[in-house]
# Entry
Amino acid sequence: MNDVLLPAVLLAIKPDEKLLTPQNRFRMGFGKPKFPDDISATTTLAQLVGPDSWYTFHLLQLDDSFLTEPVEKWPDHPAFQTSAAHILAINVINDCAERGVKLSADFTASAKSEEHYQNVLQVVEQDRNMKSNLRKRSLEPL
# Structure
């Protein structure tokens, strides 16, 4: 399935009513999304479309009228332009980078010299690599 088919796939599963909560999640409500078990390097975005894709449109208050147009015409469509502007205005946080900055800031005050600071960071990094992260399941090769 080609990602150019994404709008058709999305429109084919459009619910009759706006989704007020995510549907396909672990636990109740706003947990992490459930993804298919058979995702591989050949999986396309269109294969991952589901009801929660429409929840995203509702949550971000995006006008979906551009989806009925050919993809080539989207850049000129007012609904697409407005939706793109809303998406670009969202602040994104890189949690991994934020954790690195926090870790660095926590040990800056305790370091007596730059060399001591670098040694402390290396020990912390080595310790983090040795202990498994219990929140992540081990990834199997694709």
In short: The radius of gyration is 22 Å. Residues 95-130 form one domain. The chain has five helices and no strands.
